[in-house]
């Protein structure tokens, strides 16, 4: 009989909670009170939770809706059902079995309330959007670029400057403005065109490639530049 009374007591407590507890399909933390609202007062609810006349589910119900986790409550009800079953098997033919039968019916009603409970759509603050992802490629650091330019400046011939640039540029990416700084190290157009050929595949802001035309004086050099940056 102790098991019977314990099972009925658990069912009564669960019924009192579940009849007033709309349950979301996912776990939802308790909503924090907005500024100016006393702690402990009921959080603001979406229109589906207010028990107004146009809400068929909540019409005629009493109590304050609260937020619980549907999966957790279903597990507790399953455990309660198992306890009731064990008590039913141990009970005789007296009023105890009738009480247990009523308890089973009440348990089924609670399951229906859980199944029909609307999902919570709170009015809390919107979550802060995540920061934008870091670009996969970054242009060469200004300090690193300056070291390459200084090393190129110490070489008297264009071929040697090109070798320094080729070694220093390996594994790095550039902006058009940085390419312009490199072009300033070379005197002849053929060398400048060679620099553009070398670096263009690693330029990140190719939409600014038109700025490179100022580094060339003759039309045929500009045409060759156009073919490089267009291809």
Descriptive overview:
There is one protein chain. This protein is mainly α and 231 residues long. 50% of the residues lie in helices and 0% in strands. It has eight helices and no strands. The protein is rod-shaped, with a radius of gyration of 38 Å.
Characteristic key phrases:
rod-shaped; mainly alpha; 50% helix; 231 residues
Helices and strands, with pairings:
Elements: H1 2-18, H2 70-90, H3 95-116, H4 142-153, H5 158-169, H6 176-183, H7 189-199, H8 219-230
Helix pairs in contact: 1-2, 1-3, 2-3, 4-5, 5-7, 7-8
- Outline: rod-shaped
Kindly name the structural category: mainly alpha
Q: How much β-strand is present in the residues?
A: under 5%
Helix content: 40-55%
The pLDDT mean sits at: 74
- Count of helix runs: 8
Low-confidence stretches: 1-11, 13-55
């Amino acid at each position: 009989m102790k098991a019977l009374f314990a099972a009925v007591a658990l069912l009564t407590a669960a019924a009192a909670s579940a009849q007033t507890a709309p349950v979301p399909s996912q776990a939802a933390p308790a909503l924090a009170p907005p500024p100016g609202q006393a702690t402990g007062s009921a959080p603001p609810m979406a229109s589906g939770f207010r028990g107004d006349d146009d809400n068929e589910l909540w019409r005629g119900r009493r109590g304050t809706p609260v937020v619980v986790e549907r999966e957790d409550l279903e597990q507790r009800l399953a455990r309660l059902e198992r306890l009731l079953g064990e008590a039913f098997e141990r009970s005789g033919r007296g009023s105890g079995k009738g009480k247990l039968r009523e308890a089973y019916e009440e348990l089924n009603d609670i399951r229906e309330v859980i199944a029909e409970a609307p999902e919570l759509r709170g009015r809390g603050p919107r979550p802060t959007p995540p920061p934008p992802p870091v670009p996969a490629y970054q242009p060469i650091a200004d300090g690193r670029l300056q070291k390459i330019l200084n090393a190129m400046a110490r070489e008297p011939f264009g071929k040697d400057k090109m070798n320094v640039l080729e070694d220093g540029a390996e594994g790095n990416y550039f902006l058009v403005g940085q390419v312009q700084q490199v072009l300033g190290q070379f005197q002849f157009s053929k060398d400048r065109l060679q620099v553009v050929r070398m670096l263009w595949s690693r330029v990140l802001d190719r939409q600014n490639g038109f700025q490179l035309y100022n580094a060339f004086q003759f039309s045929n050099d500009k045409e060759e530049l156009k073919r490089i940056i267009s291809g």
